[in-house]
Design a protein that fits this description.
CATH topology of the largest domain: 434 Repressor (Amino-terminal Domain)
CATH class of the largest domain: Mainly Alpha
Number of strands: 0
Radius of gyration: 17 Å
CATH architecture of the largest domain: Orthogonal Bundle
Structural class: mainly alpha
Shape: elongated
Helix content: 55-70%
CATH superfamily of the largest domain: lambda repressor-like DNA-binding domains
Oligomer: single chain
Strand content: under 5%
Largest sheet: none
Order of helices and strands: HHHHHHH
Low-confidence stretches: none
Mean pLDDT: 86
Distance between the termini: 29 Å
Number of helices: 7
Length: 107
């Protein structure tokens, strides 16, 4: 299900280490506009700014606002592919350990 642009933006900001000023600089958008979105005084922005913001996170606008399981899986696959083989093995082992610890082991 697609979410509002503001909600998607806040989710992306919160899951990154980008500050509002740094995001504004990288996207070439107004800090004022980003602060308005963050404070809830605006729910959206213009198309050009939305494209620029999504691009900072390596996504199209559709991918940026799409929070379906398929989009999350695609994002994880994209990130996983950026890791070395050794890093992928380490991450896979950590995930397996976490799942086993939570009692959700595959059957």
């Amino acid at each position: 299900m697609a979410q509002r642009f503001r909600d998607a933006l806040m989710e992306h900001i919160n899951s990154s280490d980008l500050s509002i000023p740094e995001l504004a600089r990288r996207a070439g958008v107004s800090k004022h506009m980003l602060f308005k979105l963050k404070q809830g005084r605006s729910a959206s922005t213009n198309v050009d700014d939305a494209i620029s913001l999504a691009k900072v996170f390596g996504k199209s606008v559709n991918e940026f606002v799409d929070d379906t399981p398929d989009s999350r899986l695609a994002e994880l696959q994209r990130l996983f592919a950026l890791l070395s083989e050794q890093e992928q093995d380490l991450l896979a082992a950590q995930i397996r350990g976490l799942i086993e610890h939570q009692g959700k082991a595959e059957k």
